[in-house]
Amino acid sequence: MNSSNGMTLVGMGGYLVVMIAIGLWYARRSNSNVEEYFLAKRSFGPWVAALSAEASDMSGWLLMGLPGVAYFTGIGEAFWTALGLFIGTWINWALVAKRLRSYSQIADNAITVPEFFSKRFHDKKRVLLAIAALISLVFFSIYVGAQFITFGKLFSYLFNANMTAMVILGAALVMLYTTLGGFWAVGMTDLIQGLLMVGALILVVGFGVFHAGGVGGVLENLKSFPGFLDFFGAASPEMVEGAQKTVNGVPLFAAEGQKYGLLTIISTLAWGLGYFGMPQVLVRFMAINRTSNIARSRNIAVVWCLVAQFAAVCIGLIGRASMPALLSNGSAAENIFIHLSMNFFPPLAAGIVISGILAASMSSCDSFMLIVASSLANDIFKDLVKKNSGEVMVMWVARLTMLLVTVFGVIIAISGSRSIFRVVSYAWAGLGAAFGPLMLFSLFWKRTTFPAAVAGMLTGGVMVALWKNVIAGFGGVFAVYELLPAFVSSCLVIWLVSLFTEKPSAKIEQEFEAAKTAEF
């Protein structure tokens, strides 16, 4: 390791020390009881709730996956994906946040999303709870694996280290402070990480535009790449043996880029549907201290989302304009943020800026791990396996669950896809389709029944896997993002099954009506 890399490591190390210190600081407070450990006793203020939701949502995908797509194929796919997520963020905060905050407390103080579903439908046998917990385990393990890929790419690039070793190191660090500090540590570190992420993005964009000769210089360079600035299409890099062809340092593209039809645009925008089923975001709604603070949280979250995603797409475009032939495939392109940071800043400052990637990945990992742990420990172990278990035992089961999720995530990271964007898209679809339609129906349609809830959740999760691995292979109209058909299928099943099954009890309807106007 040279002295330059050493200073970069010092900057990143300082950040990691601060995050672990926060976990230790909140350990004693979080370990007082289960509700404190898993939901911070519903005491998040508007800034913590907003930035914790957004930081845990965006993950390493924001600083590596999204810029990588923009770098490799141009503005089209990156723009529509970001737009769909922005719209989804706004609607989720405006439509779901307040109702879920109130309803989760009315529903016998539910502290996890699976528990909310179970208590919302008075599921005495905990069928919904068990299904939701298992779906969370499967798709969040995939999601965690994507974040560990981020760690591996980052450290192996910076220090020429073994990818597998770096994945394991990153996983161990995240597990350490999440296990110690619980939801309070997650929330407070996410606040810091959310600010660091957006700050790092803005800095890199600013310096990147300057070094590339201004906005005009960036656009002029990109115009020479067919389809690169086409909002209704994508550039098509000419590939040979997995790498883009270059001639005298100039990357080659097909003369005609790929064109986007209406179906492709709708499919890409469908990313926004996933928000209605994202436990890492929904649980922040449940943790806000007062419903009156939700409007303020929404404004903070929406502004953060707009600025962060705009900057992330710009980084990919600036990177291609200034380093056109540096990264030769989609996976390598996800390193463009690192390259720009190392080129624009002194080593110590670069370490701090690059810590934005750690911030993005760690803020998501800790949330995913805690959500799965809460589902299995609080929802399965306490409610189904050992009903008389004490709170200390439940928290130790949660820590063991985090260890298992970490192991699964590491296995996925070292044996699966190297594309952060693609791995995240699959996990996002699974969670969004399994939980999203049911969340909307649970909150806004009183006639929704328990059998419909079970059928809808299973339909969403199974359809994502079926569409991705079988149906999409037929191509044409079937080659859409799996979240869209799975989400629609789940909605139809919930609606139809509800109409043909016995309507909910008077008690369930009474709770539904109370949640519509409740203030806490």
Entry summary:
By secondary structure, this protein is mainly α. It has 19 helices and 6 strands. It has helices at 3-30, 34-39, 46-73, 75-106, 113-120, 127-159, 163-211, 214-222, 262-269, 279-287, 294-322, 330-333, 336-344, 347-385, 391-415, 420-444, 450-469, 483-499, 506-517; strands at 233-234, 239-240, 243-244, 246-247, 250-251, 258-259.
Descriptive overview:
The protein is mostly helical. It has one domain: Sodium/glucose cotransporter. 75% of the residues lie in helices and 2% in strands. Strands 1-6 form a two-stranded antiparallel ribbon. It has a two-stranded antiparallel sheet with strand order 2-3. The longest helix is centred in the middle third of the chain and has 49 residues, at 163-211. The mean pLDDT is 85.
